[in-house]
């Protein structure tokens, strides 16, 4: 149940972008994730000198939500660009798309925005097609995981 307009959700993502810790790439990303109950969680990218420990804005928002007990989501807004005005659409990386697959349905909305009035909406299925959650055997969690035998 959405309790916030798309435009206001975009504004929250833009505000989250301002909190980005990106001293290496200078590429600032913000995200605003809406839980099924209407609660909104924001996140920004947090870089690390070692690069691998860097966390994207989308995963930051999702981790905050999951750590507070939310596991169902309706949509996320992603904004990002080099420091300064947002001039192009920024799409979630592959790792973020996979992370969202863990918690979101195929029709989950991913909104890529430049401003509150300029945005594009995609489904998770459109941006990350042909992906299924693994099916685990209840007696042996590793039997059948990810199509294994």
From TrEMBL:
Positions contributing to Zn(2+) binding: 56, 93, 96
NCBIfam families noted in UniProt: cyt_deam_tetra (TIGR01354), PRK05578.1 (NF004064)
Keywords from the UniProt entry: Hydrolase, Metal-binding, Zinc
GO MF annotations, alphabetized: cytidine deaminase activity; zinc ion binding
Source organism phylogeny: Bacteria, Bacillati, Actinomycetota, Actinomycetes, Bifidobacteriales
Role, per record: Recycles cytidine and 2-deoxycytidine for uridine and 2-deoxyuridine synthesis, respectively. Catalyzes the hydrolytic deamination of cytidine and 2-deoxycytidine to form, respectively, uridine and 2-deoxyuridine. This enzyme scavenges exogenous and endogenous cytidine and 2'-deoxycytidine for UMP synthesis.
Highest rank taxon of the organism: Bacteria
The EC number(s) this enzyme carries: 3.5.4.5
Record-given protein name: Cytidine deaminase
